[in-house]
Amino acid sequence: MKKTIFRFTYAGLLVAAVLALGAVAGFAQDPCTDVAGQNAMQDEFDKLYAVKVGDPNFMDSRQKAIDSGKAFLDKYGNCDPTKERSDWLRAKLPGFEKQLADIRKQKERDATVNPFNTALTGTSSTDAAAKAKAISDAYATGQQIITKYPDDYRTVEIVLATLGGDEA
Predict the structure, then answer these.
(1) What is the tens place of the pLDDT at every residue in 114-156?
(2) Is residue 62 within 8 Å of residue 48, measured between CB atoms?
(3) What angle do CA 101, 106, 110 make, to 5 degrees?
(4) Crossing angle of helices 35-49/58-76, nearest 10°?
(5) Measuring CA to CA, which residue among 146, 122, 144 is closest to residue 134?
(6) Integer CA distances (angstroms), 150 to 64, 110, 146, 154, 157, in order
(7) Can you give the residue ranges of every domain in the chain?
(8) Residue 119 and residue 112: Cα distance in Å, rounded?
(9) Who contacts 78 (Cβ-Cβ below 8 Å, separation ≥6)?
């Protein structure tokens, strides 16, 4: 009797496992037939990509668009209905990434160079204290520029030498 109970228990567990596996396999959906998901991801990319360069949220939106495009390619990149969109994304995403990296570099460069330009403008002041502060700021920011971008801004050395002559 004890063996019979165990046999029925094991048989029942086996049947439950087979049914559960079949139910889970039935829920798995082929991504290529998920038209609503494809459209939603395409719309999300289009909305994020539509943000223009002058917009304050441009860099954030463009990074999210790139990430969205990569997610689209991961999920639907091999599907026949999305072939045209997938090919376009494969061709364009590297360019978008390069553009975003270039914009980030330019913002970093501007953050270094603009204070120097502002300090140079202040050196023409007639107020001696303001002029001395502007020259001091020009030296400090000029040194940062020469350190960060030695080959791109050689003329900064000449400007700093000229300021030294004016100061003496």
Answers:
(1) 998 888 888 777 888 888 888 888 889 999 999 998 888 888 8
(2) yes
(3) 150
(4) 160
(5) 122
(6) 34, 15, 5, 7, 10
(7) 32-167
(8) 12
(9) 32, 86
Q: How many helices (H) and strands (E) does the chain have?
A: 6, 0
Where helices occur in 28-79 by DSSP H, the ranges are 35-49, 58-76
Reduced to 3 states (helix: H, G, I; strand: E, B; else coil), residue 51 is coil
Crossing angle of the two packed helices 128-148 and 83-122, in degrees rounded to 10:
140
pLDDT of residue 134: 87
Is residue 42 within 8 A of residue 72, CB to CB? The reply is: yes
Residues 6 or more apart whose Cβ sits within 8 Å of residue 12: none
